[in-house]
Amino acid sequence: MGAAMQRRHFLQVLAAAAATASGTATAKPARADRFTAAFESQPLLRPFKGVGDATGDLQGRALLRGRWPTELRGRFYRNGPALFERGGERYHHWFDGDGMVQQFTIGNGEVTHRGRLVQTTKLRAELAAGRFLMSAFGTQVDGTPPVGGPDAFNTANTNALEHAGRVLALWEGGSAWALDPKDLSTQGPVTWGKDLAQVPFSAHPKVDAAGHLWNIGTFGKAMVVWHIDPAGQLVKVQVGESPYPGGMVHDMAVTARWVVVPLPPIQLQFNKPFGPDGNGVGPRPFAMDAGQPLRVLVMDKNDITKRRVFELPPQMVFHVGNAHERSDGRIVLSFIGVPDAWFLNEGAVALMQGREQADGAASSTQLLTLDMASGRVQQHRFDNDAEFPRVDPRRVGQRTRWLLTGTGWDVHASRQHHALLHGVQLLDTETGRQRRFDHGEHAIVEEHVFVPKPGKTGELDAWLLGTTFDARRQATVLNLLDAAHIEDGPIAQAVLPYLLPPGFHGNFTAA
Ligand SMILES: [Fe+2]
Questions:
Q1: Fewer Cβ atoms within 10 A, N terminus or C terminus of the chain?
Q2: How far is the CA of 79 from the centre of ligand 1 (A)?
Q3: What is the mean pLDDT of residues 314-331?
Q4: Mean pLDDT of 75-93
Q5: What predicted TM-score, i.e. pTM, was given to this entire model?
């Protein structure tokens, strides 16, 4: 399929999806004031109240504690849904909120913070109108206008990555939005080449040690594979067919030769009524597609028609850790598996309502060994209740021993796990040993990343950098841990004079 034809096909699929989504259902956003009291009485959940247009541009200097190493200098970015209310209405689903990029600048004996809402087409239109205009992932908005493509409702709310001199604010189903690293001002959606406007560029690209960026995008039957060079120029875009169209596809991995994409059998139920009782209040449900396996699609980076599909028992997969090729040619993939769609249907909805959540089923870190020659797959699991897996950035696509995640697992408490994470842990994937630090139940732990120590090469010659929300201080805290001594907890902290909405993902760029 040529690029122009791809784009036409893509817009047809989008138009069909938008028509299905608007249908005859009439679910509305919730009344925002219904949940005000809930957030006031739940100190741990207050950040999920979100920001407004006026508070979506924050600047501050953090109070430093402990010892920040002088050789650690750079910019740490995070992104997440941040604005949930407009015109007295409130979204049903955490994933619906408009994206806000956070930038922590570390160096010269200080940590400064800047956070700004991404000025998407959607945000600017709704700001001007004073009300929600566009239906979102989990909230139907009446009167949504016809759309010419996904960027009309792109919230740019999932990941932030500085690459080739600009910050990319990333979302699942549309363009990356470029921001200026100097002040986080929005430059606009990124079009990588002719006829490629609005072709999806997913939220979990992988950047290898040389700076090459690989990503996927999915729409309808199509599976797009992107290759961007270290200067930010498109090398190649390929479009193939997905072996499981229409499901949730969230993350991907690369090896030296392959692109690896988990395809969990989870579908948004477009034809089901909204809300738990079909009463038109609440989000549309996700469901495990009965009888369908978890597929893992492996494609040759340079020719995606060379491929194999592996099948495993069904489960949900949001995030991968890493992948590499062994000397015998087999591919090893690490990812986090979840038994069901509980978080999508209940966990992420409860957070928007300021509710204490019932526990969902615990997740597990899993290792797959994929044999491209025979099509056989081996599966190994560690029951460690993990999410937000990260590895040493110098070893993306190469063998890694250590997997960094957050965890809700409580070793001692009778409650085995929580929907909100409060610990960080390193899994030794060779021995299964876990090393962890627990911030306690007054904290929400967000994704942490590896930051290699300058001039060192070992996987644990790194700091671990990430944010927590401290409910006692009602403040967001940037934490620095030594990977070799994670059990000791933060060696340094930067306490912001305010709280930030909890985000999803981010990345560090050394200065
Ligand atoms: Fe994600």
A1: C
A2: 10
A3: 97
A4: 96
A5: 0.94
